[in-house]
Design a protein that fits this description.
The protein is an alpha+beta fold. The protein has three helices and eight strands, in the order H-E-E-E-E-H-E-E-E-E-H. The protein has helices at about 1-25, 120-125, 240-255; strands at about 40-55, 65-80, 80-100, 100-120, 140-155, 165-180, 185-195, 205-220.
Length: about 260
């Protein structure tokens, strides 16, 4: 009776392991080799315009709120779905103010250092296309951005703007259009949230906001003759090899015991 229970347990375990092994064999083509630290880095430059949403912005025309903006970044993708970048950016924040019932604009100069997480939505919701599988990488990727920045505002005594330091949460989206293996162009929209005193005015809104719209170029650095993520061949998939050995051992035990 005990032997029968053991054999039944072995059959059940054999069935489970066979199922898992089959699933892994089916999906093993999407198992990626662990990237080297120096692989999948990129450099990115962007220019565009910022739109400041602060006190009295509803009374202003869009031309009263737009100002030039520029950014440079260095980053790395850890997997096809996840990456990160460090960015330095800056420019002007163009604000609208009303004094004695007369509207006027004033500029706030600032620089900002940010650290962003990059979430490739295309590769998260659809399978990554790998040249190692004889496929062409996608020409377009949609990337979500979540990050935190530290902004420094320069003193402007004429407009009563004092220098400030601000912690800045931010979210955005980037569309990346690949030209070739090394170069892609991108269009990015990202929203930054600042304290109310960012522009030297504390009234009306609890926070000031800046929305940046930028176009840029990304250069993917080539290292170890590789810009793409490498797929692990079946012969190198150690987890799958170990599982297959267990399945084969159980199969042999069941056959030799007449199971």
């Amino acid at each position: 009776m005990r032997r029968e229970k053991i054999d039944n347990m072995k059959r059940a375990l054999f069935s489970v392991l066979t199922c898992i092994s089959s699933l892994l064999m089916y999906s093993q083509q999407m198992a990626f080799a662990k990237p080297h630290f120096f692989e999948h880095w990129f450099i990115q430059t962007q220019v565009g315009a910022s739109c400041t949403l602060s006190e009295h912005f509803r009374d202003a025309s869009i031309s009263n709120l737009l100002a030039p903006h520029a950014a440079i970044s260095i980053g790395k993708y850890f997997y096809p779905e996840v990456g990160a970048r460090a960015q330095m950016e800056g420019g002007l924040s163009k604000n609208y103010d009303i004094k004695n019932k007369i509207g006027e604009t004033f500029n706030v100069k600032y620089i900002q250092a940010s650290f962003d997480g990059l979430w490739n939505l295309t590769n998260i919701f659809w399978r990554y296309k790998s040249p190692y599988l004889g496929e062409n990488e996608r020409k377009f990727n949609l990337i979500a951005i979540t990050g935190i920045g530290l902004a420094y505002t320069f003193n402007n005594s004429k407009n009563k703007v004092l220098s400030t330091k601000s912690v800045v949460p931010r979210v955005g989206l980037q569309g990346d259009f690949r030209i070739n293996d090394a170069i892609s162009i991108n269009l990015e929209i990202i929203a930054n949230l600042y304290p109310d005193d960012f522009n030297g005015r504390v009234a009306g809104l609890k926070y000031d906001g800046i929305i940046n719209t930028q176009i840029g170029i990304t250069y993917r650095i080539k290292k170890y003759n590789n810009r793409m993520f490498r797929v692990i061949p079946l012969s190198q998939n150690e987890d799958l090899q170990g599982l297959n050995k267990r399945v084969n051992k159980l199969r042999l035990d069941l056959l030799t015991k007449g199971g």
